[in-house]
Specification:
The protein has about 110 residues and is α+β, with helices and mostly antiparallel strands. It is built from three helices and three strands; from the N terminus they run E-E-H-E-H-H. It has a three-stranded antiparallel sheet with strand order 2-1-3, sandwiched between helices. The longest helix has 15 residues.
């Protein structure tokens, strides 16, 4: 039972009085390589992950394919949701991926 002013036990980290942090949202992203190829990935921080890829500290596929540019990113929620969307996007043809990028550009006014 909670004392007046005390948070519910479910909202606390085990053995502490510190509220549990909300899990970071996950994003799906597509990176365009120098040769026009598209790479799909997931992360909780798109800018950090893009920097890692540019520094050669990410997927081996992207090494030597610089310059890299962010073509698309979208917040998807949980890690599970991000993995499912990544799998779905990876199954798309390049034309379908380009349509996804274009539809995002049209909705956001060109900013992904």
């Amino acid at each position: 039972m909670n004392k007046p002013g005390q948070q519910p036990a479910a909202a606390l980290q085990p053995d502490t009085d510190i509220p549990a942090a909300s899990p970071a949202p996950w994003f799906i992203y597509l990176i365009r390589c120098r040769d026009g190829q598209l790479y799909t990935g997931i992360t909780t921080d798109v800018e950090r992950r893009l920097s890692e890829h540019r520094a050669g500290k990410g997927a081996k596929y992207l090494r030597g394919r610089t310059p890299l540019s962010l073509a698309f990113s979208q917040k998807v929620g949980s890690h599970s949701d991000a993995l499912k969307m990544e799998r779905t996007i990876k199954k798309l043809s390049k034309t379908e991926k380009e349509k996804l990028i274009c539809s995002s550009d049209c909705i956001s006014g060109g900013e992904t």
